[in-house]
Amino acid sequence: MLTQKQLVQILGNPESYNIEITTSTTNMDKFCQAICAFSNDLPGDDKSGYLIIGAEDNGKLSGLRVDDGLLLKMTNIRTDGNILPQPVMTVERFVLEGGDLLVVEVKPSEFPPVRYRGRIWVRIGPRKSIASEAEEKILMERRISNIRTFDAMPCIGTTFADIDINLVRSEFLPKAVASEILADDKRPLEEQLASLGFFDLRYNCPTNGCIILFGGNPGRYFPGAYVQYVRFKGVDRAGEIINEHKFGNNLCHDLIKIDAFVETSVSQKRPIPISVLREETVANYPYWATRELLMNAIMHRDYETNAPIQFYEYDDRIEIQNPGGLYGKVSPENFPNVSDYRNPFIAEAMKILGYVNRFSRGVYRVQKELTENGNEKAEFDFSFVTAFRVIEKASKRYYDAGFGAERNPQETHKKPTRNPQETPQNIRERIIYEIQKNPAISGRELEALLGRTSNSIKHYLLQMNKEGIISHEGPTKGGRWVVLKK
């Protein structure tokens, strides 16, 4: 970052291709365009760009007072997902005699072109503009020369015939590139994909990430590129296999299936009565949290290994294990506060497709949703050198309400003994019978007489009240029940 002395010198001579000065504090489009342009570093001199807020074009201070809200707003630009790949930037406040300055230092990206909402912005002298095709080609070639990750390397031996072109055109490109730009882009699909990091023009073949995302048969080149779901009966792998499924198609095709599978087959939602007239929905495993953990495994896994992602469900928990341990700057000590990407282009595509909501905060949201649903917080296991595992335990509230008892045998002894021949109609008839005998009967008395849990009794009373079979008169405590019809 600049020193205060260097900053004063810049204000004395502000005209430069890597300096943008503004008095605005609200024009987020302008800020993001400048950050995008600095990241692209079209001249290629590897110099940082500086967005300076709080001064006139001539360098005179505007008298701005930089508060924490403005600092936070500028810092959030890095992770809000609008600029991809993520910019490398730092934000700092300088307090000068004539007012404050907020300075955003932007490092040149190693993986240009960088896009802001699908558009490539570059710096031409002291102004910025959308890149021309020739300028985009320069940035694309620079990206190729900086290839360091597996997903951006050429998949030697593949051709355009190995990817689902219709899927790319219909599902991916319209989301990755602004519609008006895509309509005017007359380049071959190879060059369009190359500009996004999914085709290698030197070897004239798709990248590894392209095959994984859009390949017609990705397993042919990456045998471990699939998700293996297994539902075991019991609490370990010695139990009987109740259900299994393999998601082995390309990610663009499978992500929507995995999303639906988690929501409909894994996350079981049930209404739990809170009072006689109110109920709340609870799940054994909350959908969004489970989905996020699985999507993170897909995004961060090591695709060079032949091992799949293990998505294993037991009676009391879910375990998700993906090949590849913590990556890059991430360590057990700084997780999840620090993030790094083993597969930045796959991560970028998943963001574009809508399966990663926002970088760097998913784990916090997962833990919050688990806690609110009655689950324990997810446990992250870093003990494996070549793998990463997360454990999500089933919701205690879900099982305490009487759901899923057959899947949680450890809890069976806590529940009242019931007649196995008892049906919902029998229970309703017994409740009516007890109310007629004692209109002032309490919920606890009904629990004892019928051998049901508190939530079960509340459930039946709530439903019967809704259907007009019974009604409660007077206060919750001390009132009386009335049978309206049998």
Task: Considering the chains and any ligands shown, give keywords for the structure.
34% helix, WH-like_DNA-bd_sf, 4 domains, alpha+beta, Methyltransferase, Cobalt-precorrin-4 Transmethylase, Domain 2, 16 helices, 486 residues
Structural class: alpha+beta
Reading off the top of the CATH hierarchy, the class of the largest domain is best stated as Alpha Beta
Helicity range of the residues? 25-40%
What does the average pLDDT come to? 88
- Quaternary state, please? single chain
Strand coverage percent: 15-25%
* Domain module tally: 4
- Poorly predicted parts: 405-417
Termini Cα gap: 78 Å
What's the architecture of the largest domain in CATH terms?
2-Layer Sandwich
> Count of helices?
16
Main beta sheet strand tally, sense and closure: 6 strands, mixed
Strand adjacency order, main sheet: 12-11-15-16-18-17
CATH topology of the largest domain: Heat Shock Protein 90
Count the beta strands: 20
Tell me what you see in this structure:
- This protein is an alpha+beta fold.
- It has four domains: 4-130, Schlafen, AAA domain (Methyltransferase, Cobalt-precorrin-4 Transmethylase, Domain 2, 2-Layer Sandwich), CATH 3.30.950; 147-220, no CATH class; 227-399, Heat Shock Protein 90, CATH 3.30.565; 416-483, Arc Repressor Mutant, subunit A, CATH 1.10.10.
- The chain has helices at 4-12, 28-40, 68-75, 133-145, 165-176, 179-184, 189-195, 208-214, 251-266, 287-300, 344-353, 362-373, 396-400, 424-437, 443-450, 454-466; strands at 19-22, 49-53, 83-84, 88-96, 99-107, 115-116, 119-124, 127-130, 199-200, 205-206, 227-232, 241-247, 269-275, 278-283, 309-313, 317-323, 379-381, 387-393, 470-473, 480-483.
- Strand 6 (115-116) and strand 7 (119-124) form a beta hairpin.
- Helix 10 packs antiparallel against helix 12 and helix 15 crosses helix 16 (454-466).
- The protein is globular, with a radius of gyration of 29 Å.
- The protein starts with a helix and ends with a strand.
- Pfam families: HATPase_c_4, SLFN_AlbA_2.
- GO terms for molecular function: hydrolase activity.
